[in-house]
Structures are given as structure tokens and as C-alpha cells.
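Predicting holo structure, PMV bound.
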Amino acid sequence: MPAISGSAPGKSILFGEHAVVYHRPAIAVPVTQVQARAVVLANPLGTPGQIQIDAPDIDLHCNIESLSQDHPLVILLVELRSHFGINRFPAFTLRIKSTIPIAAGLGSGAAVSVAVARAVSCFLGYPLPNEKISEMVYLVEKTYHGTPSGIDNTVITFAQPIYFVKEKPFELLQVAKPITLVIGDCGVRAPTGEMVAGVRQRWEQDPAKYEKIFDEISEIVMDARMSIENGELDSLGRLMTANHQLLQQLAVSTPLLDQLIDAAIAAGAEGAKVSGAGGGGNMIALSKPGDAEKIAQNLHFAGAARTIITEIKPAGSNSE
Ligand code: PMV
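Done. C-alpha cells:
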């Protein structure tokens, strides 16, 4: 029996992280330079229900039964079983490979879940539609940080730039001009759940202050949407930096992330900000065409562990 595979890209949040948990809008894009891939290999001689996991990137080689009930893979496979109404899967080996850095704000957990849901549903002969995959992965995301907005599973499943409001149908963004982004990973891992919980704690202590910050972020996101749809990239850069200042007020940036943001601006970026939960992970900078390499180099000088250059292209223009 041939191997069956599923894959999913990484993602980056351009605007509105954290505020999106509180029902403000946010904008996210897929990052196709990094990918998660899952391969299912049937094991016709194995006992039904036996699933061997082989994930070298996270050094996980075990039988599914040895994982705890709250492990994301276990939750996802239980969801898949109940969706298909089966008691046991036919025996198989699940190989997972990912080039998406873990806990770095690029959506590695959600991308692995999307890839696995795609591969396993194809293996069963009933490939799931994107809506269902995204819904299932949202359930898995809840185990990581209790109150996810749903933006990660949505942008990763649909692999298109999106304008997203929690619990509302997402909208595809019409990108008028190519957007070149340089992503700088500061190399420090920060679990999204802890960062989201920290903001919640501060919000509970002073709701008026934080609601005001979320409202200001909301204005920026709506302006950014217009800039993207009208191809006004200089104003987009200014909006990114303004969003970063509000993320600093939410106390999710760090001295190292601020240093990378300053380095990107010094190298000619139009704007830069933390992307994702912060506390570590990555920042993004908007680059003029042709400046991206120079910005990436300066990010390395300033301490970035890794950089990714990605371009968001208008739909239908041979987008990656
Ligand atoms: O997964 P990360 O680190 O990119 O963060 C997700 C973005 C948050 O807004 C902080 C949380 C959420 O669920 O939207």
C-alpha cells in the first residue's frame, strides 16, 4: 500500500495578535518556506488500533498508547476516530517531519496537526474538507492555551492571507502589491499559552487600560487591511511599528526582540513588530523589494538565530 501524506505551511501574524483573543480583528499570512509533513504507512500485519509515531524532529519514537491523554496527537486522533465513527484505526505508522521552528510563533503545533489530520483522513479514504480540518485543529489548539482565537488553525489550513475575527467567518485578503517580509527568530522559546495567560492576568487587573490598547490595535488592523488591499506599503510599515508599540504596552516584547526590531529599521525596513505571542519567538519586518537580504543580515548581526524571507503575492500571480 502506498504511503499517504498531508502537509501544511507555517504562518506569521502581521497585525493584531493578543487583541484577537479579545474579539478584535487580526491579519495573518501563510509562510510557505517552512512546512510540516505527515506520512501514513499502513501496517497490514499490525493489530488494529496500533499506531507507531516516528517524529525525528522532536525525538518522538513511540506507540501512541505511551502518550498521555492530553498530548495533541492523541487528542487529534481521538477527534478523527469519533468523526469517522470508528473504534480503532487500522494499524499504521505516522511519520512527522517539520521544518517549522517549535514555540517560535510560526504555528508549528497547528501545522503538524493540520498535516496529520489531512494524511490520516486520506488514509481512511475520506479526505476532510478544510473547514473540518480547521475546526478539529482548533480543538487541539485549546489544549495548548485554553483560549486560542482560532487564527493559527485558520491561516495554516487555508494557506492564504486572512482577515480574522474570533468566532466569525474569516475573510480572504486581497493583496494588491507583493509584500516582502523578513522574519527574525530570536531563538528564545516562549509557550503561547503562558504569554496569553500573562496578558489575561494583566487585563483582569486593569480592564479599562487593556481594552483601550486592544481598541487602538483594532484601529491599526483595519487601516492595515486597507493599506494591503490598496497596495500602500509605506503606510503598512508605519502601522506595523505602531502595532509594535502597543504590543510593548501589553508587555509581550523583550529586550532582544526590541533589539531585532531596531536592527531591521536601521537596515531600511519600512516597519517592524513582534509577531505572535512574543516573550521570545519571532519579529517581522516589512522590506522594500531588494532590501530583504540586507535586513536579514543585520538581524543576524543583532542576534537573530534564524531569518526567513517570504513574499506575499497578489492572488493569481504565481503565488507560492
Ligand atoms: O502561536 P503564536 O505564538 O503565533 O500566537 C498566537 C497569537 C495570539 O494572538 C497571541 C494567540 C491567539 O490564539 O490568537
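The chain has a mean pLDDT of 94.
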